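Hi W., the NAP complex you wanted:
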Amino acid sequence: MKILVTGKDGQLGRAFQKEFQRLFQNKHSKVDIRYIGRQDCNLADLSALENILHEFQPSLIINAAAYTAVDKAEQEHDLAFTINAVVPEFLAKYAVTHNASLMHYSTDYVFDGEGSDFYSEDRAVRPLGVYGKSKAKGECLIVDAFSQSNNADTRYAIFRTSWVYGEGGNFIRTILRLAKDRSELKVIADQFGVPTSADWLAALSADFLFGLSADSQILLRDFPSGIYHAVPAGETTWHGLACEAVKIARESGLSLATEVADIKAIPATEYSLPAPRPMNSRMSTQKLQKTLKDLGAVSKFPVWNELVRDYVSELVKKQLN
Ligand SMILES: NC(=O)c1ccc[n+]([C@@H]2O[C@H](COP(=O)([O-])OP(=O)(O)OC[C@H]3O[C@@H](n4cnc5c(N)ncnc54)[C@H](OP(=O)(O)O)[C@@H]3O)[C@@H](O)[C@H]2O)c1
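Structure:
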């Protein structure tokens, strides 16, 4: 099996490198993995990407790359669409013509965020900003490319996730940085969603993708193609997440000027940003949980704050050492 992972320096790409190091070490599986980042290939240059595909001939592509600058996307429409829609379509077309499979990631921002229920995968998309529109287009182009193929050996999965944190810039790191010397923080308390650990998402994806053969070889599962929601259990707001991060950091021994009580809840209308965000990013994971069970996978969906605890205490440990 040859696996190509794009976006190697992003949060999810780094999490995949750790996960695959763990998964494939000591296994006698014939797995060849290539991780590519911006320095290996600017994805906006499709001919460079084509060269890599042609030369490496992957049987599985994990597209962890994306244009994720939500606010900047409002000004960089074309680049956002190239990376988030044209590139995924290109990868999908490669997959269907080369007996390969594609694992891709999308976002809660494909929804308009109306209502307060948990969105299922078949809910109509209505993105509010350019980033969400570009990701929704990418989903659509992948589904179209695979729907035109009769090849049962090629499959795709699109995992929609939300509020990702891992190795890289993210909301939790920003809050902890600000909390170091500010006596008060104001954080949005009326946008609801689920923080997702990049490490957990990579492990969940690997569990979805790979099973063991009778002689303990790691094999690609016959997973059903489709869109899935992939987030931990529970729900919170940005304010809830900030409070949890500061609480855990203080308990772990980090010296912060901000106490939990100093984190003030504000409405989104008081914190204006260039791109509109959904007020409700809750997504139901029932479809993915059932599919994992049917595949014989063992992944759990822990409550979001258990994973935040692991992440923040590890961050603090690294900072204190
Ligand atoms: N982050 C979130 O909160 C969030 C929420 C919902 C869904 N998602 C989705 O989850 C997936 C993983 O997100 P993430 O948080 O890991 O994103 P990330 O940390 O921003 O990583 C994205 C990676 O893509 C690379 N990339 C972007 N444009 C490129 C180009 N032109 N050529 C080559 N590489 C390029 C970036 O390279 P550089 O490092 O060089 O910039 C970066 O390493 C994405 O599909 C994203 O849309 C993320």
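The mean pLDDT is 95.

W.
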